Amino acid sequence: ILICLKHRESTIERIRKMNKKQTEKLPIWLVLFSFIKLSFQAYWPYFGIAAFKSMILTMQTLYHTAIVSILIASLEKRNLRLCILVGICLTGIHMFFSSISKWSICFIKVHQAKLQEKINHKIFEKMTKIPYQYLEDTECLDLIERAKFAITNENCLDVILTTFTNILQSILTLFGLITVILLFDVKLIFILLIAALLNMFLFGTFSRTRLEFSNWNLDINRKFVYYTNTLFDSKNGKDFRTYPIGSFLRKKFNWFAEKMVIYYNRYLKKSDQIKIGMQLIKYIEIIMVYGCIIEKTIRENFSISYFTFYTSTAMRFSATITSFINDCMKFYVSLRL
After folding, report:
1. Which positions ≥6 away from 158 have C-beta within 8 Å?
2. 168 to each of 52, 164, 296, 336, how far by Cα in Å?
3. For the chain, what is the mean pLDDT?
4. How many CB atoms lie within 10 A of CB 109?
5. CB-CB contact of 172 with 301 (8 Å)
6. pLDDT in tens, 215-241
7. DSSP secondary-structure letter at 269?
8. Are 24 and 18 in contact (CB under 8 A)?
9. In whole angstroms, what is the distance from residue 21 CA to residue 25 CA?
10. Are 158 and 116 contacting, i.e. CB atoms less than 8 angstroms apart?
């Protein structure tokens, strides 16, 4: 819809043709570029605030990764005064990061709401410039209404903006964790990256199922909302008393319910299969990571604090890459909707 509103007639004709051929899709990079450009034009300060929030949360994540190792390292010195001083410093740093992260989250939510409102205004402004004959065209009108429904009822815009900041934060965190792990052992990076690639494959398979279900669910919800609004609209009361349509609506709602159950069961089965596969990969990854770190610790005669730090870093990397892939898939599905 963003591309449609930007280029008007030529793109409308293009999208109408693609809408007829369900197998054809607009390139995701074109949709992403158009969305970012529209968002930047609508409210550019949001991107600076998102970058600031991501850096703060990245530093907080790296701090949480190292805090236990720092405490153990201070205990290994067997110096009570040093342990108390380290504990006080770590508590102060924790309070600082906790306060500033909560403030940044609230701050970005305010500006995210401003951006959403400005995007809605921008879309409305561009819609008013579409030639009137396209608003009377059923396929073009369906395209516009579908996009509006995805934004207002499915909350796609909020998901896109939230996952965008999460992806940015995950990228910064991964760069920091990779730098630390490379100082320990290159083999550990290979283990983590192979597990990440397997998870990415499973997430990619699942995202196609999620996108198919979301597209179908979007159409059903639009139809359901249309019939419900029509049924409860007071101006249709006289017509319904004169021409009863109870049996017709019952058939429609039953059909919606049956179809939704079928698709939802299919979605849940696929989701359970993906979760089982991911858990299996996770346990294998944990065994290999601990084995690699234990072998390196024994061979190099590292202290317990070193072992704890690199173990925590590896597990944090695994959790961050999983979160990153999940956010990317949500981002992709929301853009497609």
Report:
1. 112, 116
2. 10, 6, 32, 20
3. 77
4. 13
5. no
6. 777 777 777 777 777 777 767 666 666
7. H
8. yes
9. 9
10. yes
The closest of 174, 201, 197, 160 to 319, measured between CA atoms, is: 174
User: b or e along 287-325 (b: 16 or more beta carbons within 10 Å of the residue's beta carbon)?
Assistant: ebbeebbeebbeeeebeebbbbbbbbbbbbbbebbbebb
Of 9-18, 114-123, 210-219, the poorest mean pLDDT is in 9-18
How would DSSP label each residue in 99-146?
HHHHHHHHHHHHHHHHHHHHHHHHHHHHHTTS-HHHHSSHHHHHHHHH
Query: Tokens 């979760």 map to which residue?
Result: 275
Give the C-alpha separation, 312 to 249, whole Å. Answer: 57
- Whether 241 and 202 have beta carbons less than 8 Å apart is answered as no
Write out the two tokens for 288: 């290999």
Query: Tokens 């065994």 identify what position?
Result: 287
Name the token pair of 191: 């283990």
Residue 179 tokens, joined? 């730098």
Q: Please state, in angstroms and rounded to a whole number, the distance separating the CA atoms of residues 294 and 300.
A: 10
| CA-wise closest residue to 119 among 51, 11, 168, 46 | 46
Whole-angstrom CA distances from 5 to 1, 31, 89, 154 are 6, 12, 54, 20
Sign, CA dihedral 128-132-135-140, equals negative
Here the tokens at position 124 are: 């409305």
Torsional sign, CA 261, 248, 149, 219: positive
Instruction: Give the tokens for residue 174.
Output: 């991964």
Residue-wise pLDDT for 308-330, tens only, equals: 888 888 888 888 888 888 888 77
Q: What is d(CA 32, CA 53) in angstroms, rounded to the nearest whole number? A: 21
